[in-house]
Amino acid sequence: MRGQSDEMSLIRPAESVAALVRGRQDVLSYHISSTASRDALTMSLNLKINGKSLSLPDLDPQTPLLWVLRDTLGLVGTKYGCGISQCGACTVLLDGKSTKSCMYPVGSVGSSEVTTIEGLAGPNGELNALQKAWVDLDVAQCGYCQSGQIMAAEALLRTNPNPNDEDIDSAMASNICRCGTYLRIRQAVKTAVKQNMVDDVGGE
Ligand code: FES
Ligand code: FES
Q1: So what's the pLDDT on residue 65?
Q2: Does the CB atom of residue 49 touch ligand 1 within 6 A?
Q3: Regarding beta strands 113-115 and 43-49, do their DSSP bridges make them parallel or antiparallel, or are they unpaired?
Q4: Based on the number of CB atoms within 10 Å of its own CB, is 125 exposed (0-12), middle (13-18) or buried (19 or more)?
Q5: Substitution candidate for ligand 2 out of 21, 172, 175, 181 with most atoms within 8 A of CB
Q6: Measured from the CA of 149, which atom of ligand 2 is nearest?
C-alpha cells in the first residue's frame, strides 16, 4: 500500500499571498524516489545561495539543483512541476539569469550565485517591488506557478528595467500559468517598474 508521502498533492492550505511571494508557502508536497545507483559519486560542494556561502557534503553532482534547494536546504518556495524544463515552476536566478532548476545539475552551479524566491526580500523581510506588486494586485490564483513567475520577472527587470508588453510576454513565455493569470502578471511587472522608478528618484 502506498503511503501518503508517495502521493502528489496539489492541495494548498488557505494561507496568505504574502507568504506565497516570500516563498514561505509550499503548495506542493511530493515524493521523488531515487533511481540513483548506490555507487553514485558524491562530493562536497560549495554553493552561494541567497547571499550565503554553504558547504554541502555528500551530494551527487548530477542531482538537479531543485532537489537540493527543496530537499536538502528546505527552500520550498521553488516548485516542482513538470521536471523537464517546460513549465517554469522551478525558476531560480543563476547570476541573475532565469534558470530552470529542475534540470540543472547542482554540480554545474560552480561559483554562480543562486537566488531563490526566499532571497528576494530585504534583510528585514521587506518585500521587493515585484513581490509587493504581486500582493497588491492579488496576482496569484492557485499560486502554484507564481514563485517561478516572480523569479522570471526579476531576471527580466535586472536586464530591462522598463519592459513593454512584448518584452514581458517574450521573457516569461516559458513560465506557464494553468490558471491564466498572465494579464495580472503583466500588470504587476509594470507596477513594479513604476515603483522602482519612484524609489530611484527618491534615492538620488
Ligand atoms: S519543474 Fe522545472 S520547468 Fe517545470
Ligand atoms: S496561479 Fe495557478 S498555475 Fe498560476
Answers
A1: 98
A2: no
A3: parallel
A4: exposed
A5: 181
A6: 4
- Ligand 1 binding pocket includes 121 (Cβ within 6 Å): no
pLDDT in tens, 158-201: 999 999 999 999 999 999 999 999 999 999 999 999 999 988 88
Calculate how far, in angstroms, residue 182's C-alpha sits from the geometric centre of ligand 2: 9
Q: Which architecture does CATH list for 4-203?
A: Roll (3.10)
Which atom of ligand 1 is found nearest the CA of 90?
A: 2
Edge-to-edge strands of the sheet including 43-49?
A: 52-59, 43-49, 113-115, 91-94, 97-100
pTM summary value: 0.84
Alpha-carbon gap, residue 116 to 72, rounded angstroms:
14
* C-alpha of residue 174 to centroid of ligand 1, in Å: 10
Ligand 2 atom 4, closest CA: 177
Alpha helices in the chain (DSSP H): 17-22, 65-67, 129-136, 146-159, 165-171, 182-203
Predicted local confidence at residue 203, as pLDDT: 62
Spell out, as residue ranges, where the chain has pLDDT lower than 70: 1-17, 25-40, 203-204
Annotated domain spans of the chain:
4-203
**The pLDDT of residue 32:** 38
- pLDDT of 9 reads 37
